[in-house]
Each structure stands twice: as structure tokens, then as C-alpha cells.
Amino acid sequence: MAAGETYDLVVVGSGGGGLVGAYVAASRGLRTLVIEKTDRVGGTTAYSGAGLWFPGSAPLKRAGVQDEDAARDYLRDVVADDTREHLQDAYLEAGRMLIDELERNPWFQSFVYGPVPDYFASAPGSSPAGRTIFPPSVAATDLGEHAALVRDTIPTERWGVEPAPVLDGGRALVGRALAAFLETGKGTLLLDTRLESLVVEGDRVVGVTATSDGEEVTFRAGRGVLLAAGGFERDAELRKKHHAVPLDGTWSNGAPGNTGDALRAGIAVGAATDLLDEAWFVPGLVQPDGLPVFFTGTRGGIWVNAAGERFVNETRPYDQAGHELVRLHATSGVSHVPSHWVFDQRQLDRDGFGGDPSLPPDPAWFESGALTKADSLEELAKRIDVPYEALRASVDEFNGYAATGVDERFHRGETPWDRMHQQIVGFPAGPVMNYPATEVPGFPHQLLLPIDAPPYYAATIVPSDIGTKGGLRTDENARVLREDGAAIPGLYAAGNTAAAMSGRVYPGAGTPIGSSLAFAYRAVVDVVSRPTG
After folding, report:
1. CB-based contact 274:503 (threshold 8 Å)
2. Are 58 and 100 in contact, with CB atoms under 8 Å apart?
3. In sequence order, what are the beta bridge partners of 474?
4. pLDDT tens-digit profile, the chain (533 residues)
5. Which has the closest alpha carbon to 228: 261, 205, 198?
6. CA 270 to chain centre
7. 473/480 Cα distance (integer angstroms)
8. Residue (of 480, 512, 476, 511) closest to 493 by Cα position
9. Rounded CA gap, 433 and 303, in Å?
């Protein structure tokens, strides 16, 4: 085993939390190493819109939104777990402080407030405009050689879509953080370098063993190790062990390198874990290549299970819809994997399918079987193998709601989140591509158009995720804890490597990436506060 260099801080993982944490450390003079398992930086953050749910942060105050106390009340209510209240308080404080610090660096410029409703509309303190901020876009030319190091979007990786000359969303955040980190002169990045284990002396973590260029090498960390390497969503063994439905990672929208290396390394040195049965579940719309893409909401049609029965508000916040798919498949006795999204020509004419609403579906949708077409509901039922009478009853019930404009069973269209989909047609592209919505006159609610204009169509919905959310148990400063609650000296965790601050719920747009950044920041602040030697 080769002996590598010694650093003050070693960061494992280069997603949003890893790179921002590394920048915060390097900007304070800490000699910082980031090791990344794959050949690109960015992790799952690069696939995202990079929303950050940061109540009380400067961009919200600039927009006239000052409701941090209400946000705290909201978080308390929806998480409903008093053992996580100290983590919530730490998160809220860190988000505000981190943005203040990042906006002082020209690479980050100014984050912007983008109204996205909180996901639990009836909870005390819920905001119909939300508390989510976003990073500004950045031209690839401004990033120079760093741009080529940033992970591409899902459409580019999977379908060869030409990368845009401007990096948006998560790619913008990652690109800006990478440039800021390397510009400090204190930062080193190693790609294609996989964590193997943590180095422990006495009771303290003092470095990592990694494989780089086919050789095992040890990097020592004089001040600490920050694990920010994502979850275990791409590891079939861990998924089958901890999750109730047969998900092996194939349908995940997490980054391909997220196979739980950091989780295993932490457990090996005595770390406690929590929420390993959880994930940021989302509905996945199966594409012509046979794999799903995270789908944010449905403006029309209905989802039915194998029995032909409607089972959910199809427009509800994606984490809630994803969890419902998983729960019902595991407990109802009826298969919900896959489910079928049934709609008609009227909806197709209004919203399009799979991209720009002004264009017809690509023939590949039909050729692959990802989208099925039939002249009648009876024929459609045969093609998707659901009972016709049950499908007919589900459609008739929904059409009755369409006539009145009120979904009496699942209440689609009643929350601020639902109503947002009256204005946009969203198709996931990492970040999501949104198109202005058009309306069909003569109906009381645009999210409740009847399904009665043949031909009819069915697409496939499966449970996907944007990462697991169970991991190493941490305290308010991101220190990794043992089963007895004692911190493991020198070891920190953030993002999906750590058990989620928000427990089993997803409070608002930007909670996952916001948590990753906030607790990476708190980790570095804690490292710096501790005496050396």
C-alpha cells in the first residue's frame, strides 16, 4: 500500500455538499483533498435543479420573504420527531450563514429565490410560495477547463443529447463550487479514486485508504474526514437488505457511483445508522430506453394499478407520490409496480408527451412499448393487462370529477403545489425542463380534463428515487456518532451519506441538496473550531 500525501481535511465525494464543504475548508486555509470515485464531479447534484430549501437566507430576504419562525414551526410539524429538532435548528442556521458566505465569493454570485410551494400545504407554517433558492447559471466558457469535469445531465448521459453551452441548476452549482475550491490554492481533486476504508488510530479517524490508478493508497487527514459520497441507491445488495419492495437500484436516478462505500466505511469503524429503509422516492416515467426518469407531476389522465384502479393524486408532491407507490405495492395485495398512466388524445394535444408540447411524441416511445396507443379503452386495457371493467369504472369516476371540477376522492388540484402545474408542463431533464401550459376551454379545472377523446394512451410508472436518505447517524455539527451517542473523533458526514435531518418526509423543494450543503458547512466550521495536534 502506497503512502499518499497528508492533508488537513479529506472529503469523500464531489456532489454539492462535498465540493461546497471543500471550498469552505480551503477558503479557511485548510489543505483539502477531494476524492471522487467516478471520472466526473457532481454526483446526483449534477442531475438536479439545485434547489436549496433555505428559510431566512439572504435571497429570500431580498425578495421580501422573512418567515424563518414559521418555517421552523413547519419543519417541526411535518417531521414530527423531537429527536431531530436539534438537527433542524442547525440546518436552518447553517443555510442562512452558508449563503451569506458563498455570496461573498464572485464564483457563486447571487442565489435567487424561485417560488416553489412547500410540499405539505395544510401544515402550520407551510408557505404557498415556498422557501427555495437556486444558483445562477454559468457559461461553460466562464468555467474554462473545469466545465469538462462536471457530470452531464441525464439526457446527455443516457440519450446523447448535446450539452448546452450554459450550465444550469445542479451543474451550475457544482461548476461554480469546483472553480471556487481550486482557485483557493489549497484544494486538490482526485478523480477515479474510490474509498476503501477509514484509517483509525486509537479512537480517531486520521485518514482514508483509497484505490487510485489501480493502486491502494493512504491519504492522511490531520483535522478530519468528511464523508459526502451520496447514498447506497445503486447497490443491489444494500437495497434488497433494507427496502421493502424489490428495488435493486436499476430504476434509481441517483448518480451511478452511489453504492454505499462511505456508509460501509463508517459502519466498519463503529458508526450508528438510521433510516436505512428510506429513500427520496419519486415516481419514474419509463423512457424508450427501458429505464425511468424522475417525474415531477401529472397535469392530466390517471394512474391505475394492476387491478385497473386509481390509487393516488397523481399531481401530489413527488416524494409523497413515490412513497405511496412503494407503500401500496408492499401492503395492498395488489401490484402497483408497474402502474399505468392512462390519458387520451385531448391531453396529448394539450401537453404533448416526453418533451416540447408543440411536438408529437418521438416514434421511439411507441416502438419501444414505453407508450401504448389504442382506439378504445377496452383495447387499451388488454394491451396493458388490466381488467377492462375496473379501468372503465376508474375512468368514469374521474370523468365525473372532471365535470364538476372537484376530485372528491384524491383532491387533485387543490393545493398550491398542484395548482402550480396549471401553469407549467414539466418533463424531467435534470434540471427539469418546464414549458408554459396551454388550456382547453370549456372545463372547470385544467388538472381534471375528462378522459373521453380517443385514441387512448398508457405510459408506465415505476418507483424511482433521487437517492437513499438513510445513513450514518450524526449530530448537529455533522459529527458521526456511535451507537452510544458519542462522536467518532475526526469523522463527519453530510448529504445522503448521513441519515436525513428531515426524517421520513420531504418538506420542500431543495431539502436534500440543502441538507448536504448545510451540514458539510457545519462540519467544516466544527473542524476549524477544534485545536490542532
Report:
1. no
2. yes
3. 480
4. 556 799 999 999 999 999 999 999 999 999 999 999 999 999 999 999 999 999 999 999 999 999 999 999 999 999 999 999 999 999 999 999 999 999 999 999 999 999 999 999 999 999 999 999 999 999 999 999 999 999 999 999 999 999 999 999 999 999 999 999 999 999 999 999 999 999 999 999 999 999 998 899 999 999 999 999 999 999 999 999 999 777 899 999 999 999 999 999 999 999 999 999 999 999 999 999 999 999 887 889 999 999 999 999 999 999 999 999 999 999 999 999 999 999 999 999 998 887 777 778 899 999 999 999 999 999 999 999 999 999 999 999 999 999 999 999 999 999 999 998 887 665 443 334 556 678 899 999 999 999 999 999 999 999 999 999 999 999 999 999 999 999 999 999 999 999 999 999 999 999 999 999 999 999 999 999 998 86
5. 261
6. 28
7. 6
8. 480
9. 22
Measured CA to CA in angstroms, residue 249 lies from 87, 238, 274, 446 at distances of 28, 9, 20, 35
**How many Å apart are CA 44 and CA 495, to the nearest integer?**
11
* Amino acid type, 268: A
3-class state of residue 215 by DSSP: strand
Could you tell me if residue 403 is left (phi over 0), alpha (psi between -120 and 50 degrees) or otherwise beta? alpha
Helices (H), 12-135: 16-27, 58-62, 68-79, 85-102
Q: Are 288 and 470 in contact (CB under 8 A)?
A: no
**Cell matching residue 487:** 462522536
- Angle subtended at Cα 147 by Cα 47 and Cα 434, rounded to the nearest 5 degrees: 35
Q: What is the DSSP string of 390-440?
A: HHHHHHHHHHHHHHHT--TTT-TT-SHHHHHTTTEEEE-SSSPEEEE----
Cβ-Cβ contacts under 8 Å for 485 (sequence gap 6 or more) = none
Q: What is the H or E stretch that residue 343 is in? A: strand 339-344
Q: Which residue has the cell 387512448?
A: 456
CA torsion sign for 112, 114, 115, 118 is: negative
C-alpha cell at 212: 487510485
d(CA 139, CA 236): 37
- DSSP string across 444-490: S-TT---S-SSSEEEEEEEEEEEEE--EE-B-TT-EEEBTTS-EEEE
Q: Where are the beta strands (DSSP E) in 138-192?
A: 138-139, 166-167, 187-190
